[in-house]
């Protein structure tokens, strides 16, 4: 063929092939540059526009530079860098927060040049969508592999990006990649080795196809319907930016393929609905699927509605119509719970039973159909695992969506959703946050403890959550423990007295109130001995004492740690959670054994001797700490008596392993039946089968004035006045008050850990009243200077609010980045203020702080604990609106070397003894040994008569007399009998308590 003929034929061939491609290219917008790296974008951070680095520690952020390169794909320079990352690290280009976000919706994707080095490592690339700015936006992620050498253009269509489920800086916004409000991109570099990289020419490319800009969704994925009724599936067309569609969108639909039988259970339907070109975003079409009533009792059956979409992105999954289960005995609310459980259990497969014994974290459910697919029995929110928005309505909507999924199972067994509401509904922004348990213990008020439980239950249940992982019945024996503030105190008698909170949460002991819209299932935790672990025995990460080993005799175990659990069982507590810790029981020859493996205590003592009839829920991933392979861990925990396993991100593996263990006979089906029967019993008691969805009628009371009034009273009652020389307290409104200290005006610090997030955080994390705001509202002239740098001239009195910043669990262990000393800034504030004026020092903390070296300069000292959101309650006692009546729930040590130190110890010489607490009552009892003798006689008479209220009042009078005489001169001879008296009071031995106080009086 001649060259001319070849050219002609090639041209003709090209003409036949290229018109459509040429038109498509012509329709595509020109590429939009993002970064050329020629110096047009500086190295800077929010709120300015710029490129900045980040990492998990100081060594992990990469180093960046704009390097001149002769081989630069575009321009003269590239972005180059070096890295050596052990945790995580990378860099970000954020757009300026003061400017509008960018609109990327006209393009198909993003591309850039990357210099490959054939490392074989994955490099994560993220884009930032929506929100207020780049650091408060949603992260959408994908990755590419460095399996090439030299420059290569990486081209990523937006359809490849997926929403990050493991981390979001603000927890998500709408989880829709809208592309109309973009804030830049980020690159996460490989970990585990040193490396270099180079990048160039980031730009947006291509034109957006309609399936990227338009999508078809259904209003639900599951449509439960009574037999004989019709399901209405609403199909909605949605477009990015709400623009009308350019081309028609068609949706072909057809029923079939489920467990229901066509004709017998439903009427088959098929057809097509069309959204013509020009249809506006939000247009709806409805498809109806009729079901057939056959009057036969049966389980639920499914009817998938297959949708085939042309011209738009299809729904993420096929919607299912579910013909409700009906006519079966377990559905009859008039039958006894025991009978309903027996009937349902008899119908379930081993796999369905295993599903009921499985609890997953909400964030792990990336495929919502897994709830039905694995027949999950429960979901939870770990600390800080919240919906977006984090509102009462957001919680209810989220949980209702999960419950709807459970309706697609054969027996439509509802989920039981759990949260750690350990001091109010503390994960919810705007909820009423109570003082932590250590403060409730300081109040010595069982009825107030119950009221705090009632408020918590009402706020939790109003968001659709029926189960609370509280209260903690630990007996804290060493204040180096990061969970100290979760305990009511160091004395099991005090812990038992505060267990009225269980009735506040659950209502009546027999469980009849659990179905009410203001009650939740309670959890006694952590069984058993978690508060008694030996310092230095923990093997969990950098923890020093949390999750360690409790070394005790059988007698010590019974008297100290087991004692509160019998009371909880008697009160009808619905669930019990074992401890992460190990128990080394003297004389049993077993050495340290993890509590999740101690069948002798879970099956033998708790379920056997104590008669616990609720169910046992494991702690977070606790079975992973047991010895052996995964099958052994599952078998060990289940056979030890753990009924439901909290396996946040491994629910698939656990369920499969449990089924395999049962089929192999290593876990008996009888044992599995017992576990599931216990779980189902509580679900029936909660009324979940009849009302699985959130009852939000009480939502208006969340954070209400009435609820905050209870929290305010609890905050006031929790304040313990340790010293009050010269009657500095109560303050007078006529005084000029100088307020200083790190915790005076910080709602996050005064609420502590387990507030909004697991660890809590400093700052304005939730609505409330800081202590400073409470003082200002109480009246008088107030000057505030956090660091005490403002002049003190002319001030009458100083109030310095110091203490800890938030932590939770072993992260807060002493020796794990924490100690019991005040910070340098707090020490300086105390020294400055107390040297200039009469001063009151408030210690806001989860445990005692060492202040002995400054005690001489302090006129009044208050243990404020972690008072919650109502700082006005602290001001109430400072200004005398309420009297100081709180007492130490734990011993206040002189030094860290004294720890552990507890009431009843042979060597007992603390700064302040257990039970200490001065008062600002207008009349403190007068008298000496003669008065104490008379009080003792009366107390013994009250004890014999069972007059507890009278007996406690008499002991209190004796205590105040001793404190008045002793003042701050507390010796070991005073402290030991004084603390013993408080224990005797709590055990109802009023006469002996006064005798001990008389001994302390004489020693003082």
Automatic annotation (TrEMBL):
Query: An example of a Gene Ontology BP annotation on this entry?
Result: cellulose catabolic process
Q: Which InterPro entries match?
A: CalX-like_sf, Calx_beta, CBM11, Cellulose_Degrad_GH3, Galactose-bd-like_sf, GH, Glyco_hydro_3_AS, Glyco_hydro_3_C
Q: Which UniProt keywords apply?
A: Calcium, Glycosidase, Hydrolase, Repeat, Signal
Record-level GO cellular component terms: membrane
Q: Which PANTHER family match?
A: LYSOSOMAL BETA GLUCOSIDASE, PERIPLASMIC BETA-GLUCOSIDASE-RELATED
Calx-beta domain residues are 203-308
Q: Which reaction does it catalyse?
A: Hydrolysis of terminal, non-reducing beta-D-glucosyl residues with release of beta-D-glucose
**Top-level division of the source organism's lineage:** Bacteria
Q: What is its EC number?
A: 3.2.1.21
- Organism listed in the record: Streptomyces antibioticus
Per the record, the similarity remark reads: Belongs to the glycosyl hydrolase 3 family.
Q: Which SUPFAM superfamilies match?
A: (Trans)glycosidases (SSF51445), Beta-D-glucan exohydrolase, C-terminal domain (SSF52279), CalX-like (SSF141072), Galactose-binding domain-like (SSF49785)
Protein name in the entry: beta-glucosidase
Q: Which PROSITE patterns does the entry link to?
A: GLYCOSYL_HYDROL_F3
Question: Which positions carry the signal peptide feature in this UniProt record?
Answer: 1-24
Question: What GO annotations for molecular function exist for this entry?
Answer: beta-glucosidase activity; cellulase activity
Family matches, as Pfam families: Calx-beta, CBM_11, Glyco_hydro_3, Glyco_hydro_3_C
SMART domains, alphabetized: Calx_beta
